[in-house]
Specification:
Strand content: 15-25%
Radius of gyration: 17 Å
Helix content: 40-55%
Number of domains: 1
Distance between the termini: 9 Å
Number of strands: 8
Bound molecules: cytidine-5'-monophosphate
Length: 230
């Protein structure tokens, strides 16, 4: 299980200070909309400068027509990040186009597909997808697996069923982790690290419980201690 910390702070300086405080840890850094839209490619470089070993997940959740997604995927590969994601609902053709375009890259980034956002509850999810979260997440995961993606973004509660329906090696990255019962915020389906471990989660993502803590480094330390007992 590899911890992924979300860098969702209001400025590049604060995100970089957080990364600096965590530079001795072997962890993933998640760069999302807020940081990437504001600070762009230079921010990725600045993170790598702090620790070249940081692995970077660019969480931009691509959703567009297949050719546009493949173009974007290629630009992302050139950035040298280690993982990025697309929306599964962009469909099988988009998935194939993205994977085909990346096939010539020797060290291509891992590609994950977002199944159901962890902020959805059952009722609001059905209003859009007309199916329950479990059923639809599994269907999206199978489609992602069949089209050569490396894994999915899902909630902890779908992780095991998705692995059973695809492969144990098919990666699950799960936001909405509240390591020690912290406030859920806008997340609807939150889980502890122990539950994430039981459900086979590969990458637990933790944002607010780390960066809103008065001692983020101490928090990461506690989290890694728990993970090391699994
Ligand atoms: O602060 P918190 O721990 O809830 O952060 C979760 C992070 O994961 C946020 O950056 C959010 O954008 C991201 N995310 C998510 N649900 C998804 C995909 C990404 O919450 N399905």
């Amino acid at each position: 299980m590899d911890l992924c910390v979300a860098l969702d702070l209001p400025s590049a300086e604060e995100n970089l200070a957080l990364a600096e405080s965590l530079k001795t840890y072997n962890i993933w850094m998640k760069v999302g909309f807020r940081a990437y839209i504001r600070d762009g490619k230079a921010f990725i470089g600045a993170l790598k400068k702090i620790n070249p070993e940081f692995r970077i997940f660019l969480d931009l959740k691509l959703y567009d027509i297949p050719n546009t997604m493949a173009d974007a995927a290629e630009e992302i590969a050139k950035l040298g990040v280690d993982m990025f994601n697309i929306h599964a609902s962009a469909g099988a053709v988009a998935m194939k186009s993205v994977m085909q375009r990346l096939s010539s890259y020797e060290n291509r980034p891992l590609v994950l597909a977002v199944t159901a956002l962890t902020s959805f509850d059952e009722e609001n999810f059905r209003m859009i997808y007309e199916k329950g979260i479990n059923e639809k997440a599994e269907q999206f995961a199978k489609m992602s697996f069949e089209n050569g993606l490396d894994g999915v973004v899902c909630s902890t509660f779908e992780s095991r069923a998705i692995k059973n329906a695809t492969s144990n090696d098919f990666l699950t990255l799960c936001p909405g982790i509240r390591p020690f019962g912290e406030d859920a915020g806008d997340q609807q389906r939150v889980a502890t690290l122990e539950r994430a471990y039981e459900e086979g989660v590969d990458y637990p993502v933790v944002g607010r419980p780390v960066y809103r803590d008065s001692d983020p480094k101490g928090k990461v330390d506690e989290i890694l201690k728990v993970i090391s007992t699994f």
